[in-house]
Design a protein that fits this description.
Blueprint lengths: L7 H20 L4 H42 L3 H4 L8 E5 L3 E6 L5 E11 L6 E6 L4 E8 L5 E3 L6 E7 L2 E9 L5 E8 L5 E9 L11 E10 L5 H6 L2 E6 L3 E5 L4 E4 L2 E9 L3 E13 L1 E6 L10 E11 L7 E10 L2 H5 L15 H18 L4 H43 L4 H15 L7 H20 L19 E9 L3 E5 H24 L9 H19 L5 H25 L2 H13 L7 H22 L1
Antiparallel strand pairs: 1-2, 2-3, 3-4, 5-6, 5-11, 7-8, 8-9, 9-10, 10-19, 11-18, 12-13, 12-15, 14-17, 15-16, 16-19, 17-18, 20-21
Helix pairs in contact: 6-7, 6-9, 7-8, 7-9, 7-10, 7-12, 7-13, 8-14, 10-11, 10-12
Length: 625
Amino acid sequence: MEEKKLDLNSIIGFVLIFGILIWIMYQNQPTEAQIKDDKAKKEQAAVQAKKQSLAVVPVVQDSIQKAQASAALGNFAYSASLPSAKDTVTTIENEFIRIQVANKGGQIVSATLKNHERFKKGSKQLVTLIEKNNAQLNLSLSTQDNRSLQTKDLYFQPTLTKNGTDQVLSMRLKSSETSYLEYQYVLKANNYMLDFSIQSQGLQSVLNTSKPVNLEWELKTLRNEKGIDYENRYTEIYFAYEDDKYDYVGQGDSKSEAPTKVSYVAYKQHFFSTILLTDTPFEKADLASANLVHDAAKDTLFTKQFKSIIPLKFERGELDYAMHWYIGPTDYATLKSYDKNLEHVISLGWGIFGWINKFIFIPLFGFLSSFIAYGIAIIVFTILIKIAMSPITYKSFLSQAKMKVLRPEINELNEKFKKDAMKKQQETMKLYSKAGVNPMAGCIPALIQLPFMYASFQFFPSAFELRQKGFLWADDLSSFDEIVKLPFHIPFYGDHISLFPILAAIAIFFYMKMTSGDQQMAAPQQEGMPDMAKMMKIMIYISPLMMLFFFNNYGSGLSLYNFISNLITIGIMIVIKRYVVDEKKIHAQIQENKLKEPKKKGRFQQKMQEMMEQAEAQKAAQKKK
């Protein structure tokens, strides 16, 4: 077969085709303008793509968080999918208080009192009882598949409405659109009290309702006052239980109580309190307190750590607890106005001491401070109390004067019967009976005055009215009146010098100096008894020193009261001794009484006589044996 050869026409065809292809490629090359335009479009597309990728990141992160929350929630995954599943807060406020409630946990994360300032030099800060994550409210839930859920980690859906002037904030943790756990906060106008309720709806298929839910409430109390030691001393947990019984968790590094039938738990700070009340008493409450102040010389933010664990029971498969939350001043009048026995969180003393404070000190000081300055009110208050007590003071000095007049005769009896102590006692009692003198008459008035003195130690530290009220050099009558700041810290004394305790100590020194001589003259030394003269000399110096040390960190209002009280007592003593009590007349009256028929012996004298006769009979029987 003849081999086919490449002819000229074929070569010309291939050349033409190749040329056409080159021409087409050349015609499709972009111009310089097209190249620049294309480059600009690519750069713009790159910028847009970057923006889109950045926008996708939070969405992806939010999706991851919601997915994680859903995994933890189980049947409450519905809440994690809602738009409210984010860390935001809802604010409710009135004229007194501003409250912020977080979506996460549905709990109060900030509580600020709008009319009270925290003590801080150089700046004005409102008192804040809840802030900086110092508080936590949590429900520990058990699910049907035996898992444990903590509401503090879950997201609630907020709904804020108004009912007249009331602000109603509903926080719902949803399992579905119709099943949920709800916290409801209701804040009324001009009020420190919130209505607070915990309710559930349709959660029987989600939660194990056979087990109680633990309500866990924690608070680290923030420092709000000038003196950290003084504030911490009056920061405690108080509670009401078993039909109007009241108690507190004691001081210390770690203390706990477990009362039953609890109607309220109060986290009381010195002048402010956070109190959880319930309309239906809790079956029990485990309460714990821990001290956070270990070095008062350092700047301390917190004072105590409080925690309560309160079981809540399901009723017919649902939770339904109506409660209240008081967040405000620890002021006696304010707390009493709610008529829920909240004033018992203020320590006014037990028994007669509390009665004196409730029915005498609080009404009287409240009346005086309503129209005069607080420092002047303390002075007038002290004068009125001392005037009211002056008849008792007079009787005490009169008794001392009578004993002083009888002292020479008592000394004669001591010398005459120095070898027979029993006979000496009998003759001394006969002398008292003939002279019409009761040796206990000087002690009884002093004992009557003691409750008033102790009541003042409870009243002034609790007087909210004195907070941040100044007088003379004291800038706060509820705290110490520092005049010198020391560059070091003295144990039991502090790092400053307060002036009112110094003045009170000086007044006590002169008062005891004036009375010690009369008491030594009036009280004869008995065998087997300590030397009263030596004891009085020691007390003259110990009492002022105790005043200096213990009162240096106390409220200056109490030191002012003691200073004025001792000054007035010294004045009354001088007047009574110089112008009222006449020792010559007393002596004449005693001699006249001796000539009269002996008066019927008092119970004390009769009892003493019987005891001495019995002792003498026993002594005689022993000698006979």
